[in-house]
Amino acid sequence: MTENLTGAGFGRLEFRDPERIAALRKKISQLCRNVKKPISIMHVCGSHEQSIARFGLRSLLPPELNVIMGPGCPVCITDVPEVDEAIAIARQGAIVATFGDMFRVPGSCFSLEQVKAQGADVRVVYSPSEALKLALESKGEVVFFASGFETTAVATAAVVLANPPANFSVLSAHKYIPPVMEIVAEMPGTRVEGFLAAGHAATITGWGVFERFVSRHKIPVVTGGFEPLDVLAALAALVELVVAGEAAVENAYPRCCTKEGNLAAQKLLWEVFESEGGMWRGIAHVPNGNLRLRSRYRSFDSRQRFDLTPDLCQEDSLQPLTLECICGNIMAGIQSPKDCRLFGMECTPQSPVGACMVSAEGTCKIWHEYGGHLIIAE
Ligand code: SF4
Asked: How does DSSP assign 59-90, residue by residue?
């Protein structure tokens, strides 16, 4: 049925076709009509939240369906000590190159933007290869402070394998999505009954990567793309599985995602990186959730090349408002931005207090930009 609604039965897919949107809306409403309690579904991708908020998709959903945000913003879950490591390196005179979203994310005392204002050389780049180009043009050390999920990590791996110069290294804050779904599923009192998985990440890993999770937790997973029709088709498939009590993986993004995924990209990824446990900001310690350079690439690992001892915060550099930030609860799907006293007041995209207001994939920033609906699982 999902296949029909995503294109196979309708000829060419038109991702915003109002008739198909209406058909999916009706299907979801019909599926939810007889449920005894609201269904809670979690997505684990900032791009899904962007699409849902930007196109007002929550307003199309019946009140019996809660779509909650999960830990899907890679910048938001980059842990405070990882930002501190980048700052420590910048203060030792290296050029730190990073994505724009990471520039303003607070560490314990400062953000990279603030240390740049104090004289450190921090540059915004759009890709790992741009950081590599900086190293080729520079005599000094260039560190690529790398964030993002497995999709982005592949591009970093490609650069490490491209015979970079000796003055180039990577400070990896890359994360791996599947393990954090285990954490959310095992959280005491979790109400998540289904996961909407990110289509772009699954395009790399393949949707088969979720089979073990589904058999272990008996929670269905559906991969979905990012156009309005993609999201609604994936939600329809997921609700169908939840209502039927069927724990299975379904692929609602067949134009990009296969069961095996992109084998060439996986080869690059796992050649350079290995997964290990580590903290995700505001969430928990996630076993196998961090991607770190394998020891055979240690010469390109910034953690092996620099003193990462963070500076102690000065009294006047501490930001008391950050103590009120509930980003962690938002990414765990427990609260929404509107539960935060600072939302739109002391905390705005121009003056962010927490990481969720910094990144384009952060829920607070998305809600600030497009408006949001307070829909939290009861
Ligand atoms: Fe944190 Fe700001 Fe979001 Fe509040 S509005 S949770 S302070 S990022």
From this structure: GGS-TTEEEEE-S--TTTTS-HHHHHHHHHHH
pTM exceeds 0.85: yes
What's the gap in Å between 363 CA and the centre of ligand 1? 9
Q: Is the CB of 356 under 6 A from ligand 1?
A: yes
Residue 309: exposure state from Cβ atoms within 10 A (0-12, 13-18, ≥19): exposed
Task: Give 372 Cα–ligand 1 centroid separation in angstroms.
Answer: 14
Q: Does the pLDDT value for residue 7 go beyond 50? A: no
Cα–Cα–Cα angle for 182, 183, 188, nearest 5°? 115
When pLDDT is averaged across residues 195-215 and rounded to a whole number, the result is 96
152 touches 160 (CB < 8 A)? no
What domains does the chain contain, in order, with CATH numbers?
Answer: 18-73+177-252 (3.40.50.11750), 80-174+280-315 (3.40.50.11740), 325-370 (no CATH)
